[in-house]
Write a structure and sequence with these properties.
The chain is an alpha+beta fold. It is 61% helix and 15% strand. The chain has 9 helices and 9 strands. The longest helix has 44 residues, at 41-84. It is elongated and about 95 Å long. It starts with a helix and ends with a helix. GO terms for molecular function: diguanylate cyclase activity. It catalyses: 2 GTP = 3',3'-c-di-GMP + 2 diphosphate.
């Protein structure tokens, strides 16, 4: 059931309760006057008792309905969280992040050019994550992902978007943040994560991440932004890991080649190459 439907039910229940209380009070008062001239106290008392009994039954039924609807609302909220949040890290899942980012990018594109603001998409990937899983176990890998996600949330503003795209890859959409501001944020979260340690006491392992990002302004396809940010992430991995590589939209394309390869070819190969480099 959609949240709006539950809200409508709550409002209807409260309105019905108010109507029941009002009508019950009117009927009780009317009964006193309607039967007063008949001189039949017993009949009047019986009718009043029936009206009061009906009124008394309606009130708990309305209370039950309100409680039931409140339960449905809580259930709806839990279902919404399950559908939009990553179960392990509690940040947005891939689908929810992409949908929210596209909505924000679209809103940016609808603004007039002089009023448009810069945003930055960051792709963050845990360094040597496969080694952590292989050497210390998947439970330590989960601990690492949870710690990284918590640090990412603390390192950005409340209205920025944080999501897990899958595996050890996270994404952040920094709202109203150009290249230089995004660089400051990315370096801050990188330094915060490199102070984290996971694993048993005798085998503690320090974490680190690499980040790639692209600053943009105006309407841009999310997939195009992702490819540019992912290519920059690969550059950060290739040049030593635990690094941040950011560019403005279009800057990468003007570079023509990366390591002698055409940019388009590099973008197509970035994901596979980064996966190999992470092993």
């Amino acid at each position: 059931m959609r949240q709006t439907s539950i809200d409508d039910l709550v409002r209807f229940s409260m309105e019905l309760l108010g109507l029941t209380l009002t009508m019950g009070a009117i009927m009780v008062i009317a009964a006193f006057y309607a039967f007063d001239g008949f001189g039949l106290p017993a009949t009047r008392s019986t009718l009043l008792f029936c009206l009061l009994a009906l009124f008394g039954c309606a009130l708990p039924l309305q209370i039950y309905a309100a409680a039931r609807i409140a339960g449905l609302r809580r259930q709806n909220e839990r279902l919404h969280l399950a559908a939009t949040r990553d179960g392990l890290t509690q940040v947005l899942n891939r689908t929810a992040f992409k949908r929210a980012a596209e909505a924000e990018i679209g809103a940016t594109g609808r603004r007039r050019a002089r009023d448009a603001v810069h945003h930055t998409l960051l792709i963050i990937d845990a360094d040597h994550f496969k080694k952590i899983n292989d050497r210390l176990g998947h439970h330590v890998g989960d601990e690492a992902l949870t710690a990284i996600a918590a640090t990412l949330r603390r390192s950005v503003r409340q209205d920025d978007l944080v999501g897990r795209l899958g595996g050890e890859e996270f994404a952040i959409l920094l709202r109203d943040a150009g290249l230089e501001e995004a660089r400051i944020v990315a370096e801050r979260l990188r330094r915060a994560i490199e102070r984290l340690e996971v694993g048993p006491a005798d085998r503690r392992t320090r974490l680190s991440v690499s980040a790639g990002g692209v600053a943009f302004r105006g309407p841009v396809a999310f997939q195009a932004l992702y490819k540019m940010a992912d290519a920059n992430l690969y550059q950060a991995k290739r040049t030593g890991r635990n690094r941040v590589e950011l560019t403005r939209l279009g800057a990468l394309a003007r570079g023509a080649t990366i390591e002698g390869k055409p940019v388009e070819r590099h973008l197509r190969e970035a994901k596979d190459a980064r996966r190999i480099a992470a092993r």
